[in-house]
Amino acid sequence: MRKEDCFYLGKIVKKYSFKGELLAKLDTDEPDLYDSLDAIFIDLRGNLIPFFIEKSQLHKSNLLRLKLEDVDSEADADSLLKSDLYLPLELLPKLEGDKFYFHEVIGFNITDEKFGNVGILKNINDATAQALFEIDRNGTEILIPMNDEFIIKVDRKNKTIFVNTPEGLIDLYLEE
After folding, report:
1. pTM score, two decimals?
2. CATH code for 3-91?
């Protein structure tokens, strides 16, 4: 399994018992969707390794308590600490309407109500306090905050996101 075919689910943060159980912090708003998995991929030194899950249950909100097959001791568990967890993309719940996963809208056109066609969405920068659409307009980068008030409609069929940005925002990037 390749990382490109998976989504990041969370990270193993600590051991839970001396029998090899682990606690994973999930990166999701709906942790209960993932409390009955059969298997999971763990990133070990850059390789995704499948592990079968013997038992799992939610533990204190967004922590998932995991008992993995063949992880039966503290030493086994130690070797997995701080490892990232992944699942295949097809296990992501489908989003509808104007909700979207970042990876699914890369390559979409961005169209502003007043400005018109802005360009192609190349990336979403979520390393800042406000996530940003990074748009390529014929070699010029335009940044638009991913603000619910700006996003009007996500048209998956036509691969277009319609936005309504404040007057002059896009022009800031185009003036020489």
Report:
1. 0.67
2. 2.40.30.60
Contact 34, 80 (CB under 8 A): no
Residue with tokens 């159980």: 21
Domain boundaries, the chain: 3-91, 102-174
- 128-149: pLDDT as tens digits: 888 899 999 999 999 999 988 9
Superfamily of domain 102-174: PRC-barrel domain (2.30.30.240)
β-pairing, 39-44 vs 140-145, is unpaired
Torsion-angle region of 46 (φ positive above 0: left; ψ -120 to 50: alpha; else: beta): left
Torsion of Cα atoms, 57 then 63 then 64 then 68, to 10°: -130
Nearest to 162 by CA among 171, 150, 147, 144: 150
